[in-house]
Amino acid sequence: MPEFWGRLGLPGLADVHTHFLPPRMLRKVWAYFDAAGPLVGTEWPIRYRWDDEARVAHLRSLGVRMFSALAYPHRPGMAESLNAWTLDFAARTPGCLPSATFFPEPAAARYVADALAAGARVFKVHVQVGGFAPTDPALDAVWGMLAEAGVPVVVHAGHAPVGTVHTGPASFAALLARHPGLAAIVAHLGAPDYAAFLELAERYRHVRLDTTMAFTSFFDRFVPFPAAELPRLRELGLAGKVLLGSDFPNIPYPYAEQLSALARLDLGDDWLRAVCWDAAAALFDLG
Ligand SMILES: [Zn+2]
């Protein structure tokens, strides 16, 4: 990996989509993947089942200089304590973006304002696991606040791996129609509806995409990216609208597979530099 980014002349890698959560909750997430629960839908043997320190050390050894701690609730009443944990984790972990989340519930606007005041620089919501519509009225004030603050929010909005009534490009487009200034980062390039999400990133100035799991042979088995759309992905990447994401540690293959997958696309070194570092460096003001 250091050879990969060194050859590109980069100072390292910026990965906007990694997960660190309270250890008890992470064990539950892993158990869910182990059981291939209904929202996972396929065998998913997680590779990096290590404690926080070992996983941070591994990211550093790979040259990942910026990462996130994307936690997300699956029911009401959880988000605020997750935020306390992820913000504390970032404060004691150099390189980790202060991360926060929310859920459609009456307290959301208050605790999102608190998280912003505490320095949150990236948010995450998972429409599939959360089981809510992005346009849920209980979130309207939250989206407005994030758009105004210009703070990015990683949204798992696509149908993959298993769609629900709230996932997919139509619900997400409805959200953007209401909040066109939202700095949303569409996780997994919006898989499997790549073209529809590329179109939203083209149409809305502040909408970006992350590469999480896309193009890996694991992902290609069930949600392959259409080759005909690669020129659009190239343009968006060169415009700084595609960010490296990996889903580390919840991946069933080595981290380097994400980078090999991006390199295999053969979209050029400028594209790789933009995706692996420059886009995030601009968005998050990395030195
Ligand atoms: Zn993820």
TrEMBL record:
A GO MF label: hydrolase activity
GO cellular component: cytoplasm
Xref: Pfam families: Amidohydro_2
UniProt keyword annotation of Transmembrane helix present: no
GO biological process, one term: secondary metabolic process
InterPro entries recorded: ACMSD (IPR032465), Amidohydro-rel (IPR006680), Metal_Hydrolase (IPR032466)
All copies of domain Amidohydrolase-related, residue ranges: 15-286
Keyword set includes Lyase: yes
Keywords, sorted A to Z: Lyase
Entry protein name: Amidohydrolase-related domain-containing protein
Organism, scientific name: Micromonospora chaiyaphumensis
